[in-house]
Amino acid sequence: MTTKQKINVAFIGCGGNARGHGRSVSRVEGVEIVALADPSENSLAAFKENVGLDASLRTYADSGEMLAAVNPDAVVISSPHGLHFQHIMESLDAGCHVHTEKPMVCTVSHAKQVIAKVEETGLHLLIGYQRHLSPTYQYCRQVVQSGALGPVHFVEAHQSQNWYRNQQGKWRQDPFLGGGGQLNDSGSHLIDILLWVLEASPDTVFAMIDNLDIEVDVLTAMSIKFDTGALCNISIVGHAYGGVQEDFSIWMEGGALYLRAGKLYRQEKEGGLVEVPAADMPEGANKDAVFIELIRGERTENPIGVENGLRVIQLTEAAWESAKLGMPVKVDLR
Ligand SMILES: NC(=O)c1ccc[n+]([C@@H]2O[C@H](COP(=O)([O-])OP(=O)(O)OC[C@H]3O[C@@H](n4cnc5c(N)ncnc54)[C@H](O)[C@@H]3O)[C@@H](O)[C@H]2O)c1
Predict the structure, then answer these.
(1) pLDDT, average across residues 6-22
(2) In terms of CB atoms within 10 Å, which end of the chain has fewer, N or C?
(3) In angstroms, how far is CA 181 from the centroid of its own chain?
(4) Residue 59, ligand 1, Cβ within 6 A
(5) Which residues pair with 264 in a beta bridge?
(6) Are the CB atoms for 220 and 209 separated by under 8 Å?
(7) How far away, in angstroms, is 129 Cα from ligand 1 center?
(8) What whole-number distance in Å separates Cα of residue 79 and Cα of residue 295?
(9) Is there an atom of ligand 1 within 6 Å of 13 CB?
(10) 312 φ, ψ to 5°?
């Protein structure tokens, strides 16, 4: 029997999303949740109950205090977006590996500071963009990257969610805490997966944005031209009914991939439209388990690293700028 290296994990931000991390991290052999930091007593209590932790587990209102007192090996950050930068930097400074929820940070300048800190410390930082570990998107990436269906000509992707109504008055619609609106919230998943599947650099973006009657973006229509010549239309619809709905289409020289309501279809010159069976897709993985594997050296490549976080915010900032100016802008990738 092998004994796994013991990893002590603390949580910063213990709301709704953190509980899922708490449950999956606890299932990893040799991992112990040693402390929680969140200013909300309700969130702390609900987290303990939901994850099945002892009521006596140490809790802190302040993350800095927790890091100093507990000295964990790793942290999971699931706080409001505008606080990610502070929480990531203080955790890395405290010598902790970091699993931060998306978006990594909310400005390009912050992303570059995080990258420098990760390089300086040599610690791992994984971002919660779980689509990198989904069989469906891994399959799409493999088809595109292998060139099996030739070069990409056009991508269309949209995402909708009942975000405007559900988040009224909450931190997600606060310009600082939300770090932007729906484009940098759920929309950041779509931007991230687009860039990851294509592995191409966006050259120009033209975005039109409607905030409705709040301070941050709710509806975004954006067109992108990539350095490969591929064109792309993205729609982020933050005023819809229901949970996240996502469609994704990739047209290549030799065929196309269509992701519709969770099902993936492949079309080639001959043979019509065929649903891709699960057996043809790579195996998926759980991001919390992957984070621990990275720390233990059981996995050498970080599948969702800091560069992914930088690329998302570079394109997002360019889209905000384009919408403000009312004209296409070059994406600054420096
Ligand atoms: N990957 C995904 O699919 C996914 C899904 C949902 C949420 N998320 C991400 O998870 C994060 C949290 O979202 P949520 O839905 O759980 O929100 P939430 O509002 O349920 O939880 C946020 C928590 O952060 C706490 N908090 C506020 N200020 C804090 C501080 N200074 N220090 C520590 N904690 C603080 C709040 O009290 C609250 O408990 C966000 O980054 C969000 O984008 C990711």
Answers:
(1) 98
(2) N
(3) 15
(4) no
(5) 259
(6) yes
(7) 14
(8) 22
(9) yes
(10) -65, -45
* Residue 91 and residue 35 in contact, taking contact as beta carbons nearer than 8 Å: no
Interval 66-79 mean pLDDT: 98
Ligand 1 site, residue 17, Cβ cutoff 6 A:
yes
Answer whether 128 contacts ligand 1 (Cβ < 6 A): yes
Angle, helices 108-121 vs 81-93, to 10°: value is 20
Could you tell me the distance, in angstroms and rounded to a whole number, from the CA of residue 230 to the centre of ligand 1?
Answer: 35
Cβ neighbours of 252 (radius 10 Å): 21
Share of the chain above pLDDT 90, in %: 98
Nearest atom within ligand 1 for CA of residue 81: 41
Task: Tell me if 43 CB under 6 Å of ligand 1.
Answer: yes
Return the CATH architecture of domain 131-285+303-330.
2-Layer Sandwich (3.30)
One-letter amino acid of 292? I
Residue 78 has what pLDDT?
A: 98
What's the pLDDT score for residue 267? 97
CATH number of the 7-129 domain? 3.40.50.720
Structure-token pair, residue 195: 């860039």
**Pocket perturbation via mutation, ligand 1, pick of 60, 77, 101 by most ligand atoms within 8 A of CB:** 101
Q: Could you tell me the strand order of the sheet in which 31-37 lies?
A: 58-60, 31-37, 7-12, 74-77, 97-100, 125-127
Residue from 103, 67, 70, 66 nearest 85 by CA:
103
- State if residue 130 touches ligand 1 by the CB under 6 angstroms criterion: yes
Determine whether the shortest distance from the Cβ of 91 to ligand 1 is under 6 A.
Answer: no
7-129 and 131-285+303-330 share one fold: no
Global pTM? 0.97
pLDDT the model gives residue 35: 98
Domain ranges of the chain: 7-129, 131-285+303-330
Pull the structure tokens for residue 97.
């590996």
Distance, in Å, from the CA atom of 57 to the CA atom of 22, rounded to the nearest integer, reads 13
